[in-house]
Amino acid sequence: EPEVTQTPSHQVTQMGQEVILRCVPISNHLYFYWYRQILGQKVEFLVSFYNNEISEKSEIFDDQFSVERPDGSNFTLKIRSTKLEDSAMYFCASRVMASGDEQYFGPGTRLTVT
Amino acid sequence: SQQGEEDPQALSIQEGENATMNCSYKTSINNLQWYRQNSGRGLVHLILIRSNEREKHSGRLRVTLDTSKKSSSLLITASRAADTASYFCATEGHLYQLIWGAGTKLIIKP
Fold first, then answer.
1. Distance from CA of B65 to the nearest CA of A (A)
2. What confidence tier does A72 reach under pLDDT thresholds 50, 70, 90?
3. What is the pLDDT of residue A57?
4. A92 exposed, middle or buried (CB, 10 Å; 0-12, 13-18, 19+)?
């Protein structure tokens, strides 16, 4: 069964460093998402992406964040200058349609900023 | 902003018993979804119920939706130790993003 994959599974970085989290969505999916979950807290929407541009973004997704689909398969989330509070689990998701069906989630990348 | 809020925050029951978790939200939705998360792991989709549906079943799962009360419930029947996890509701509104509740931590005691 097709699945969303994410790499790395765990990333440790120092404050101020740039990180790129990678996702490979399911191949026929057109809509892509990033969410994050700070330890012990609820999942929060970051950004949605369709047709090579951002569809929606939350207040969390400030100028330090960017997303890109550099080729036909990868979908990346870049954090330019990490802060301690960026430590969280980052989930990528994809789906076929804009709405009304399941979003398929990857296993997540645990980002630890020291 | 719309939010799913689950209750209880934590639930501990004996294996074989039924577990009921509730979710409330604030604004109109297109659908409501339930996910499971094992400790520190990924999010597993359980069931999606659309705003025009009132009840949906999937195996041992039963979900209800009451749009007049802006609430949903997830019932897991004949619970098993493997059901131990956190359960989240997530609502999808006109913006198509998922808005998540804080989750219910379910512990099934053998």
1. 15
2. confident
3. 93
4. buried
